[in-house]
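Q: Predict the assembly, please.
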Amino acid sequence: ICFALLCHRTKLILILECQATKTCRKYVDLATNTDNANVKVLIDPKQFSRNEANGIIIIDKLQPRDFHILFVPRRSLLCEQRLKEKGVLNSFTNIDEYILDLIPYDGDLLSMESESSFRECYLENDQTSLYHAAKGLMTLQALYGTIPQIFGKGECARHVANMMLRMKREFAGSQTQILPVFDTLLLLDRNVDLLTPLATQLTYEGLIDEIFGITNGYVKLPPEKFAQKKQGEGGKELPTEPKKLQLNSAEELYAEIRDKNFNAVGAALSKKAKIISAAFEERHNAKTVGEIKQFVSQLPHMQAARSSLANHTSIAELIKDITTSEDFFDSLTVEQEFMTGVDTDKVSTYIEDCIAQKDPLIKILRLVCMQSVCNNGLKQKVLDYYKKEILQTYGYKHILTLKNLERVGLLKPQSTMRNNYPTIRKTLKLWMEDANEQNPNDISYVYSGYAPLSVRLTQVLARPGWRSIEEVLKMLPGPHFEERQQVPTGLHKKRQPGENRTILVFFLGGVTYAEIAALRFLSNMEDSGTEYIIAATKLINGTSWIKSLMDSPEENLP
Amino acid sequence: MSLKPLDVHFKVHLDLKKIELYEMGWNLKDGLRECLVAAAPYGGPISLLKGHNRRSPSARPQLEIYSSSGLPLASFPWKSGVVKQLGWTVSDDLLCVQEDGTVLVYDLLGGFKRHFSMGNEVSQSQVLETKIFHSPYGTGVAILTGALRFTLATNIDDIKLRRLPEVPGLQGAPSCWAVLTQDRQSKVLVANGSHLFILDNTACTPVTPPGLSPQASSIVHMCVSFSYKYLALLTDSGHVWMGTSNLKEKLSEVDTKIKTPPKQMAWCRRPKSQQPSAVVMWDGLLIVVGECKETIQYHLDDDSILVPELDGVRIISGTHHELLQEVPGACEEIFKIASMAPGALLLEAHKEYEKESQKADEYLREIKEQSLLSEAVRQCVEAAGHEHEPETQKTLLRAASFGKCFLSNFPPEQFVSMCRDLRVLNAVRDYTVGIPLTHTQFKQMTVQVLIDRLVYRKLYPLAIEICRYLKTPEYQGVSRVLKHWACYKVQQKEESDEVIAKAVSVKLADAAGIFYSEIATKAYESGRTELAIKLLEFEPRSGEQVPLLLKMKKSPLALSKAIESGDTDLVYTVVMYLKNELNRGDFFMMLRNQPVALSLYKQFCKHQEQDTLKDLFNQDDDHEELGNLYVKASYKEQRLEARIALLQSAVDEYYKAKNEFSAKTTEDEMRLLRFQRKLEEEKGELLVGFSLHDTMTTLLSVGLHKHAEQLYKDFRVPDKRFWWLKLKSLAEKEDWEELEKFGKSKKSPIGYLPFVEVCIKHHNKYEAKKYVSKVTPEQKVKAHLAVGDMEGAAEAAIERRNESEISTVLSRCSATTDHLLMERLNRAKATAVKK
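A: Predicted assembly structure:
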């Protein structure tokens, strides 16, 4: 959930992040500093039910004001119960909910921004987020029509589909008569494709996320590169605040380059630079007043384009510093070796060296997990060795994290079953030797060779269909299924020749920017005939994903 | 034949018509005499309380409820207190206001629903007079108490009592009063003699009606129109003053020439009508007053009551039920003698057409020449709507249909919906149903409400027929009726659970959007738990099943339903409920059978009740998790002893779980902790809590090499890592001598390139160079490059004849200084490529 503070004159809506104490203090300050304010508290019921104590007591002390409570994303009986037990339920003038399931993130992207969804579903067996996902899909269908076809792969996908069908029965008789916008819904469990998020994303947007982290559509960048060079001042003062930039398709240039492989971004930027400076040169050709007027009217747009270009050139430089480093190269080489199945059954010297040099733990975990996934489990000896190395180097407390990784299947000892990853790789063509980064002809460009499994499954579903890969589907965890939903007669979509099919792909457990890029690439392919809309419980990358699975006992210290 | 209109006389008075609705089906000995009567608007039911003034227990008053046609709906002896007033709510419930301010609510079949009080003040000073009124907020009750104060509740379903301010100078009961709804507020208009006051929440304001004739010394009666827009006042001089209810405008004043106080007075006015008209009733006499001086008088044979309606007044007597209303415009136009209105001509044309007379054509031409045919059709359709006689309706509709044939592009909706509406209206006006709605009332009331009213009367088949006929969406129409039917059905005690459940499921099977939980709730409320459970099985929304199941103490079922719904919040709710209801053992047993609930509860416990979590794991013999729990707990311990004790417990559990790795690792952890503490005590270095790696690094950095070595051996740290660690620590300390010694101690398991690189990292090229020679041939080029020895690098690369290495070196050469070298390299590259 986004932690924003919305002020509207005297009305305050505060989104209370229930890491209770810290934010509560902030909230109390606000409440006391604003006279005669209505204080609204938006509460994430899940967080709330867990660490509620501080929040409530403080609210109680501030009796004389008007308090409203808004539950996000849904009203929770449990929370109300606890409020009642604390005896403060009656202090609220209003108790309501702010239903927030799917948040539109971009023109083709919806996210639930449910941070811990993967952890809850696969580790803690808590399917709350799936219920919200199903509810969100019902809302979507109420707005955009019943989706006639549902495909899915994985346990969670099955669960969500079941809930949707059930909810549909519950709403029977009250359907809205809307022409379906989506032809198909594809539900994919993240654990069907554990490999993709572990790999380093190589698209522009993916790398920004990997290196700086994109949160709620914003990225914070080191300020040095963005210092305003004003003439005369000589750039004495360097800004110390990180530069905050919003990233979405509203920015023309960004929309153009974000899904490109990073190696193709430089060329795109210089091409753009030429176009922009050419546009500015136009002014010399403007002779008549009319022409000048026209030029001036375009100026704001051109200036915006120029500043956008400057920003992205700076970002690209920052990224380039990292991607050209030896460390990055070595690590990428190892990743690619694993993905192509080279020496996945032995202890990797590179990982060993990284541990010895105490590189960041998450980097190590990403690599070890990747090796395990690509080898369908590690030999017991190898696994124990890695574990021991990690525990000795980073501390024994990480034993719980390792256990979590084992439980979700990211780490596992090799079973007697043979390694089926090579078969999957070959059948689905997960590795493309000659990935064209500049002018891609296949989704594998997003990882410079590796085609994300999840997107490959989506691609095959659209054409020629899953029946052709029945064998591989059986090797992947969880059931795969197809359901049909009755569409009221008269609302059957009659597709014009040449009109695209629309598939909504829902990633349960999170999606990476590279996967999104791959799906957009498929949408834009000339002969694809399919348009993809993407939804996910959360936008993730390998680092944030692994982090969500970690257990560090110290953090829970009172 | 020429069709000239007769000279229309000056319109003397408004045109009224009196329609006989029913001959009453009841058999009342004394008519309505000495009865407390209340009839609901919109053709609603009539209630009678006979002998309500009798107080002796031997002769209890009898409460009777009839339909508008006089068919009995209910009858029972009144056993409660003295009733001051009867009245109906908007949802056809009967309100009986007692002397003590208690209001009893009955449904229209005489079933007691509930009661409420109008407050202490009312019960103490007793009820003097009561008025029951309707507003957009529902049905309200206004009471004048014995203390001459008004108490008001605007909506009896959400009672908020309001005591209105005192009326100045009020000595006894006011001469008359009425309730108004103005500015979204209910107010009381009170007349005390010739003074008029408006009471609202805060104030009592004196008001004067504009132009009230001065000879009046008292206002004896008043009435407010159905819409609250108009007010009529009757003075002791016999004058009726009519005006707007905000008292800003006078519409007319008429002298009735009767000075006795009337029995009742009511507005009789169509919506949008230009003329005011009110009906005043005395014993045996009814006078209609309007705009002009003259009045219309009717003789009444029998005691009657007036029921004001939206578009007229109903007059109910002991034997008859009539509707008095202003003649609707369309009807007047058509049926006025020798009318030349287009509608009248069309009706005539159609008559001729039926007679197969060519005059039909003449009439038609007459209309068409004035291009009024569509107007004619519209008039006929509208008039049909106002007619009560099916034959007349048909005649008019046929004429309209006939006229339509000569029009192109005439929208058919009005005609079609009128036909449908009339069919429905005729059905409900039928004597056996007895709801004499006019078309205007029907439109105001909506089909939804009409269906509700039929349902209250348990006329389910008719209601369903109407829904189907009007094609009402299922969940608003048929499904709703069926639900009501089912709710009624489950209360029939004589039938067995199986029979009822089956009957309900069969009837409701195909209906969409049925909420079985409501039906089940009804069944449960009438004490039929088993039936309720059976019915809940049909409920598609599991979420709705749960609260009722809990209420019925069917917790296991509630739990599995909650899980089925997928709504985890619901599961939590049930789990928390169970936790309080059951003893711990049973609670755990129940959770054990429901893994989903169990894991949710575990999550809850993890954050709220760690001890319970331990019990849960113990119960399941989940030693692995118990171990984890101890490990976690150990990090919350500040004291080392306690920490080690917890870790020991973890070790035990891990062994029980046969997880050797975890057990061994945890033992290692304990060993490390002990070692760290010992060293802390001996050497004063802060170590506890460090990882093994960090401990060794710290030891090396402070020169405790022996201890580091000991750890290295004890914990069987791989050589490679130890070498890396030592290399980095020594370089960090810039202890180059020791480093050199270390490098020579034995053959490095990590090779010597790291030595070179680490030295360079610490800006010591001199030291770095020492190790270059020791680097393996494969890494030589890299090593040379690292120390900046281009020549060496080139030498090594050429020697190895490795194209990519040569290229690497080349890329590092600068064209100005390494000119010769580059030439050599390029040559070597060429040969390497050839090979």
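Residues 1-13 of chain B have pLDDT under 50 and may be disordered. Chain B has 32 helices and 28 strands.
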